[in-house]
Amino acid sequence: MTEKFRGIEFAGPEEIRDLQEKLLKEHLRYITAHSPYYVRLLSGTDIDSVNLDSLSSFPFTDKAAIEAYNDDFLAVPMSKIVDIVMSSGTTGKPTRILYTENDLRRLAYNEEISLAGCGLTQDDVVLLTCTIDRCFIAGLAYYSGARSVGAAVIRNGISSMASHGEVIRRMRPTVIVGVPTLLLKLGQFLQSQDINPREIGVTTLVCIGEPVRDKKFSLLKIGEYLEEIWGANIFSTYASSETITSFCECDAMSGGHLHPDLAIAEIVDDDGRVLPYGEIGEVVVTPLAIEGMPLLRFKTGDMSFLIDESCACGRKSLRLGPIVGRKKHMIKCRGTTLYPNAIHSVLDEIREIGEYYLEVTNDFDLSDRVKIYVSVNDRSYSAENIMDKLQAHLRIRPDVIIASEESIRKEVCSENSRKLTRFKDRRTS
To answer: Global pTM?
Structure first.
């Protein structure tokens, strides 16, 4: 990484803490003066006495609050808003996330230092396979960051495999940004066209939207498949549209780096207590220096852990571990608690399985019922074989239903999303 990007995260812990406490106080002064929601919530707060340790005494903000009081989170006149994003709410109803020009500059800066940490330079050509339209923020974020690094960007967005293949053949990108399952299918498509993905000059895959590593930072099967097909370096990045903040891996590939001047991260348990470093809980983010819709202690709903050890790359700021699951997706099955990702990991190891998805219902008050629908490319491989594998690895034996690949593809593939929907939550409240 060049000197240009060696910022506060390379400083010592005390310097980082001092800066974050200063920025936190500025943030609190701003929201208690300009955000109607926080003016009501935090009236009378003694901001001068606040430090990082006392942050845990403040209330959380969640998606339900943003959905219920959407307009009250706006801290600037509407005339200062330049971009509007739609984010999914708790009821499935989209909620507005509003950005000012300064917010978009902050976004570009966040992605610039994140992508630079992956080794991107002005010599790279970046293919974006994520949409830059439809009121989403991901494509715009990576586009802005890659441009800020100085790289050339190909905005091919949500296109067919044939379109991506032609772009790769003609324009020879060195970096591809996309959802891991899409990148896998793209590599397989190229192979079907007698093109070896390992020989076309792609050196880096920036994986978004889905995890590629487990909690020990080893590649999941999807990551191993990508590495095998592309022969490229694989980086994982995590972000949310509400916080305008991302956590991206560096060359050490051992956690997503927190940029201390942009956010404060916490991990909390089910009761809202802050957990020690290394323990898994819900990711809570307080984004700093946001104008349009600033937030305090935003509960992401994602489960992970924080690492406080210095990174091999030289950064001394906190890192966020891989996302192990969504809190609301946690499954309790006959005394065993797990997340869908754990089941995915086992199924991804079984070469005889083609497509699959999980369906969860709650037939009993204290236990969920899991059904797994799979297609197999080897007719001799039975549902019993799959159940045996799951029981050996996870101590649960869910029902397995073998179906046609076509019927399962209809369930997992959506025209409006590059992510595969492999989890169907049919549980009633």
So the answer is: 0.87
